[in-house]
């Protein structure tokens, strides 16, 4: 089922949490709402669910206005970060719950419930845990059961709020891939909230980047990473080095037009000497100040040289560990080494600002 959000507004007191939001989610997509804490992701999700009422605007499910439809009639499934399973029920009964509480007319038979729950437990690859109780499961297993329980009632839309937030890094990673595969099997339109850009990039078909109640950009993971629409998106999706580019005074001198140049750490290469005049790419002289190796990557911190206002500021370069080791040998790199850093790729944004 497709979801459309039209001109949605919501404020808590004076805090505007959803600021004229417009969004189209085609049926069957897996979409991530990504943004920092307080950007309005959860509030948007709760409005989609019918747990929160917007001040203005509308939500359409499959083209029909669902803004005032009760949460029970929206046919949505939820999975939350701390989605407590019923502790006194077995895993099987937890998953069966949504089917058993249906009104008699639409309640499946006992045989149908058994077959459906077994099928769902197989889908989340935990059928061998059917007779256990929630406290006997790991956190990751519990979240998979929570998903099976949400899917049991065949929701038209699945809403997940930081579903893996409470789990440790390794389990989170496993569950992300698992969620992606699961979605490829069931194809239910799904929206999940996360503040983790890696999680969004790895799992989602499309990412909605939110900031201060507004949508900054909607796009595939590649689109938002390679072609960020705003400086916020660029900076939120990964580390970046920042340079202040040229500044122009507009006629009359009332306003200053500037430019900021952004380069990601893995887009900088280390050269022993200044590039020859006319060679492509911008380059900056810098001094190596320290290196840090974490797993397969080495992060090398440099300080800019020169006499401009940015002399002394730090620049990060990131290389695969083996590549850095080879380069260190070749250029005899050590703390204090003077090199040039050349950008393979830069992103520029104009900054229009009033002159002081
Ligand atoms: N019921 C409420 N009453 C008052 N303020 C609220 C309420 N719910 C949310 N807020 C405020 O609205 C803003 C957005 O909250 P929301 O939970 O939607 O953001 P979020 O992007 O999901 O953040 P997080 O990642 O921290 O959950 C926050 O400033 C929050 O304090």
When the domains are counted, the total is: 2
CATH topology of the largest domain: Rossmann fold
Distance between the termini: 52 Å
Structural Rg: 25 Å
Which shape, going by the Cα principal axes? elongated
What small molecules does this complex bind? Answer: adenosine-5'-triphosphate
Number of strands: 18
Mean pLDDT: 88
Main β-sheet: number of strands, strand sense, barrel status?
6 strands, mixed
Strand order of the largest sheet: 6-7-8-3-9-10
- Look at the helices and sheets and give the structural class: alpha+beta
| CATH class category of the largest domain | Alpha Beta
| Order of secondary-structure elements | EEEHEEEHHHEHEHEEHHEEEEEEHEE
Task: Enumerate how many helices there are, as a single number.
Answer: 9
Stretches where pLDDT is under 50 for at least 5 consecutive residues are none
* Annotated CATH architecture of the largest domain: 3-Layer(aba) Sandwich
**CATH H-level superfamily of the largest domain:** P-loop containing nucleotide triphosphate hydrolases
Percentage beta strand: 35-45%
How would you portray this structure in words?
The protein contains nine helices and 18 strands. It starts with a strand and ends with a strand. It is elongated, with a radius of gyration of 25 Å. β9 (206-211) and β10 (214-219) form a beta hairpin. Helices cover 27% and strands 35% of the residues. The longest helix is centred in the middle third of the chain and has 18 residues, at 169-186. It has two domains: 3-236, 3-Layer(aba) Sandwich (Rossmann fold); 241-354, RNA polymerase II/Efflux pump adaptor protein, barrel-sandwich hybrid domain (OB fold (Dihydrolipoamide Acetyltransferase, E2P), Beta Barrel), CATH 2.40.50. The protein has helices spanning 41-49, 91-100, 110-123, 139-152, 169-186, 197-203, 221-226, 231-236, 321-331; strands at 3-12, 15-25, 30-34, 56-61, 64-65, 76-80, 157-161, 189-194, 206-211, 214-219, 241-249, 255-263, 268-271, 283-294, 297-304, 314-320, 338-343, 347-354. The protein has a six-stranded mixed β-sheet with strand order 6-7-8-3-9-10, with helices on both faces. A five-stranded antiparallel β-sheet has the order 13-17-14-15-16. It is of the alpha+beta class and 356 residues long. The structure holds adenosine-5'-triphosphate. Residues 12, 15, 17, 35, 37-43, 195 line the site of adenosine-5'-triphosphate (ATP).
